[in-house]
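Look over what follows to help learners.
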Amino acid sequence: MVKILIVKPLCNEVESKKFEGKFLSEKHFKKIIDEDCDIYALINNKKKLLAKYRVEIIPEKLNDLATECFKKDAKKASSMRGIASGKISKKNFSKNIIGFVSPDSYKSKVIYKDGSISKYYRANPVNSLIVGYFDQPTLKEKHEIVLNNRNLCRTTKFTEQNKEKWKKSLNLIKEVDRLYKKLTPSIYKKQQNICKKVKKYCIDKTVFTTLTVNYNWRTACHVDKGDLKDGYSLMTVSENGNYDGGYLGFPRFGICFDIKDGDLILFDPHHYHCNTKIIPKNKNWSRISIVYYFREGMLNCHK
């Protein structure tokens, strides 16, 4: 039986900005959810779906595809995650970098030992991978796109260069898409209609354009600004070995979710969310989390 939970915000939307870029511990959350549950936020006396959480709903064979297909590439460092990677810190960079142009920000041009400054902004490096389609150019493409007014939307590098892995991963993606439709048919239908405008950039007849794959990464508090304005995101976890923590938390509402292997959560990504600290219990552990969503910027691609 699915539990229904109604939560009241602990602060208003403006005040919730205080969480931005911060790493929060379990003490910031009043309730840890680890069972099937539908959660509604009560804002201005109106109920709005915040999340739907289901335990062990993804078949093991499909869930294992996350590790099989994405682990190797997700382990590579990315310096493009901004606020989710926390305030920029020199300890996260090589010794060749001695400072930042914007030291109090979440991304900055870096200063090298020889005094030169990088051309591009960098955030703290984290183990994260974007797959599917994306509405932002690569760093190398930016200048060419501005000059020639080229279409910003593109196939990600992983999807272009790993065709077999990508093809295999579609079985998992389609299962998550099916569950999205089952859990929230009306919301799914709206997103499906939007996808019809940019079929080329929707993943194999699903309502997702993009996946973010994270490897053993604890995110700082952030909102997913690039996601569909009124849309929802879904997340699955594929794990090996044992660890504690890594809860997905929503500090404005004082709740977090203990998402484990085979679990699924559908959630509103426009509220601040983050992970608690991940504490390994053995050496050979890994945690692959995948977020499935529609990029708002894709709607500019059909014009």
